[in-house]
Amino acid sequence: MIFWKNFFQNSDVKSSSEKNFKKLIVLDKTCDRVEFKDIYVSSTKNINLYELEQLCDSVGWVKRPLKKVKIALKNSSIIISLIQKKDAHTKLVGFARATSDNGFNATIWDVVIHPDFQGLGLGKVVIYQLIQQLRQAEISTITLFAEPDVVSFYKKLGFIKDPDGVKGMFWYPR
């Protein structure tokens, strides 16, 4: 288990396209699956759609039309990305986004961590960042949809089933 010393520290990255990056600091720089070379958190909405598609493919998600993904990103209130920088190359290794009414409610969507980086605490980082930014905006209700196999992950982060027993309802075109 990797313990996070400090989630965020100002980066020395000079590139203007990377000015929104913050460096993640870990106590243990290696594990048996991944060597940690500079992993950065970014809150920019300028996401490479093809890299995002590759990340989603890596966890077996159904392909979505890039045109619609682009619209979803544009309409997201917050986007958090995790970028691994190794030498001159970057790799998108984590992602999540939230939509909000900017008054009371927000919903977290599309939480994805590359399989090579799962189990290292990076999912906690993206959720923590989303919650922190939403709470700074005084959003009081944060919801998400979770597959049954990841419900326990979100419970550990403080998410609960609706205490009032409200069940979500959906409408789909026939």
TrEMBL record:
Designated name of the protein: N-acetyltransferase domain-containing protein
Name of the gene encoding the protein in the UniProt record: ORF174
All copies of domain N-acetyltransferase, residue ranges: 24-174
PANTHER family tied to this protein: ACYL-COA N-ACYLTRANSFERASE, GCN5-RELATED N-ACETYLTRANSFERASE 2, CHLOROPLASTIC
Gene Ontology molecular function terms on file: N-acetyltransferase activity
InterPro entries: Acyl_CoA_acyltransferase, GNAT_dom, NSI-like
Organism: Pyropia pulchra
Residues that span the membrane, as ranges: none
Keywords, in A-Z order: Acyltransferase, Plastid, Transferase
Origin organism lineage: Eukaryota, Rhodophyta, Bangiophyceae, Bangiales, Bangiaceae
Keyword Transcription set for record: no
GO cellular component, one term: cytoplasm
